[in-house]
Design brief:
- The complex is a heterodimer.
- Chain A is mostly beta strands.
- Chain A contains no helices and eleven strands.
- In chain A, the strands form two sheets. In chain A, strands 2, 4, 5, 6, 9, 10 and 11 form a seven-stranded mixed sheet that branches. In chain A, strands 1-3-8-7 form a four-stranded antiparallel sheet, with no helix packed on it.
- Chain B is mostly beta strands.
- Chain B contains no helices and eleven strands.
- The radius of gyration of chain B is 13 Å and the shape is globular.
- Classes of the chains: A mainly beta, B mainly beta.
- The interface between A and B is medium-sized, with 18 and 22 residues.
């Protein structure tokens, strides 16, 4: 089945640090990837849609300059949380969707638990 | 605004029973429907996809779709404690975007 790899799985760092999270589709091409954030006991919240070779599309209320997304190839998207603060602590999850055919589901990475001290 | 609605639960069923999870959606043009399972502290995993009206069975799971009623459900037969999780209904919203419901928490009591 389709596999999405996300690294790192956990990050603990000081306030003001920038953190980069990678999302890779291992056995399929993904023109479109998605970045979600999930706080404890809450729903998935879509932050942005990552498009290979073009700018990401951010959801309302998500700061583009705070959450930098780069989708440089058909198998890799990165999310950089710039100058992270304690309120950015959350579970960040990426997903990727196969390019082949219509109506393909999203496949999720294992997530990154970010803790800002 | 396109929406996907689920009862948040918790839904509690005894081991061996059938768990029935329901979902309604607002966009009549939706063509693809998915069920994901999310264990606490983990990311969602895909368990079923359904695209046509009717039932689709995969092991102990059966997805049911009724486009006229804008309703999709998931039945879990012979429920096990390991099925205890949050189940997310997801609906294709067009433009490669998928709308997720808030999820239904399921508890299977041993």
């Amino acid at each position: 089945g389709a596999v999405v790899s996300q690294h790192p799985s956990r990050v603990i760092c000081k306030s003001g640090t920038s953190v980069k999270i990678e999302c890779r589709s291992l056995d399929f091409q993904a023109t479109t990837m998605f970045w979600y954030r999930q706080f404890p006991k809450q729903s998935l919240m879509l932050m942005a849609t990552s498009n290979e070779g073009s700018k990401a599309t951010y959801e309302q209320g998500v700061e583009k300059d705070k959450f930098l997304i780069n989708h440089a190839s058909l198998t890799l998207s990165t999310l950089t949380v710039t100058s992270a603060h304690p309120e950015d602590s959350s579970f960040y999850i990426c997903s990727a969707r196969e390019d082949s055919g219509q109506y393909q589901p999203q496949h999720f990475g294992d997530g990154t638990r970010l803790s800002i001290l | 605004q396109k929406e996907v609605e689920q009862n948040s639960g918790p839904l509690s069923v005894p081991e061996g029973a059938i768990a029935s999870l329901n979902c309604t959606y607002s966009d009549r043009g939706s063509q693809s429907f998915f069920w994901y399972r999310q264990y606490s502290g983990k990311s969602p995993e895909l368990i079923m996809s359904i695209y046509s009206n009717g039932d689709k069975e995969d092991g102990r799971f059966t997805a049911q779709l009724n486009k006229a009623s804008q309703y999709v459900s998931l039945l879990i037969r012979d429920s096990q404690p390991s099925d205890s999780a949050t189940y997310l209904c997801a609906v294709e919203a067009g433009g490669f975007k998928t709308i997720f419901g808030a999820g239904t928490r399921l508890f299977v009591k041993a």
